[in-house]
Design brief:
By secondary structure, the protein is mostly beta strands. It is built from one helix and 27 strands.
Length: 312
């Protein structure tokens, strides 16, 4: 986690804040967009000594719809009793490129000094040039929670600490999504990878991997067994913005194979030498075909960084 120096953008007011026992948002308002998030008013009131040194630490994190970290996590700490106000119009740019909507920004006051972790502020937005995060068949959440007997029989468990978290077939963002769990869901722990950066968990009848950055550990998981992931890598995909014709060769002078709809993804099977055209799998008249599409008509999603072969 990197340290964020905010003195240059915050107006700091130090004084007693009566009746406040945790960091709170004082009408904080951030607008989230394609390039980052912008302050349009309000601030934070800090009166929670989670450091044991008369200061409160808070952490700002940005995520895209796939759970990818696009800002931070960045932290700062100020004296308890402080009120912090950003200058209107200050923009924080994403530190990584978002790949899917929606986009989330969260301010968290971490656990410490006998105090539990607390979400201080959260907001979300969309970027018109991005697709929505991929849909999955199985959705789990508070309404389909783990039976109490599963959690009770374990030395510890995890709590989802983000709006919605993907469960994947392996320990990395390059693996396929097998389900999603909502914030606050308790997860039964089955294993952990060797680096202890991903947990192998169960939610209801779904088993998958979740990233350590987005969960809170409860209990003692020190002796959790190491599990080797055996997941399915996501193939490269082409997200098409709007419907278009696809062609038999990598040129519009070739014959049209069919017209395909936009706002969806197609598996990429190859490309031309300079990656200006992609060969994709699509359904035409009820049959799966391989045809060519202009690269400028969409965006490539390749979280596994797989090589895309050059096709003749």
């Amino acid at each position: 986690m990197r340290k964020l120096t905010l003195f240059s953008v915050f107006v700091l007011l130090i004084g007693l804040v009566g009746g406040v026992y945790a960091a709170v948002s004082d009408d904080l308002n951030w607008e989230v967009g394609c390039d980052g998030f912008t302050n349009v008013g309000g601030g934070l009131i800090l009166d929670r000594d989670n450091t044991g040194e008369g200061r409160e630490t808070f952490v700002i994190t940005g995520l895209d719809g796939t759970g990818k970290v696009i800002f931070g996590p960045l932290s700062e700490d100020f004296f308890t009793g402080s009120s912090l106000y950003l200058n209107d119009g200050i923009t924080f740019e994403w530190t990584a490129t978002p790949t899917a909507n929606p986009l989330y920004v969260t301010v968290i006051s971490p656990a410490g000094n006998g105090l539990p972790e607390q979400v201080v502020y959260s907001t979300s937005g969309r970027c018109s040039g991005l697709p929505d995060a991929e849909e999955v068949t199985d959705l789990t959440g508070a309404e389909i929670a783990n039976p109490e007997v599963i959690i009770a029989g374990q030395p510890g468990y995890l709590i989802v600490n983000t709006f919605r978290l993907n469960m994947r077939s392996g320990d990395g963002a390059e693996y396929t999504v097998v389900g999603q769990v909502n914030g606050g869901t308790r997860l039964a722990v089955l294993g952990v990878n060797a680096e202890r950066t991903w947990w192998y968990v169960q939610a209801n009848n779904i088993r998958g991997w979740v990233r350590n950055d987005f969960v809170i550990v409860r209990g003692n998981l020190t002796n959790t067994p190491i599990v080797v992931a055996d997941g399915v890598i996501l193939p490269p995909r082409f997200f098409l913005y709007i419907g278009t014709d696809i062609y038999s060769r990598a040129t519009t002078s070739s014959s049209v194979v069919c017209h395909i709809p936009g706002n969806r993804e197609y598996v990429i099977v190859g490309r031309n030498a300079n990656a200006t055209w992609y060969g994709i799998e699509a359904e035409c008249d009820g049959e799966t075909v391989v045809a060519w599409i202009d690269a400028e008509l969409g965006a490539v999603r390749n979280p596994g960084n797989q090589a895309i072969p050059i096709l003749p």
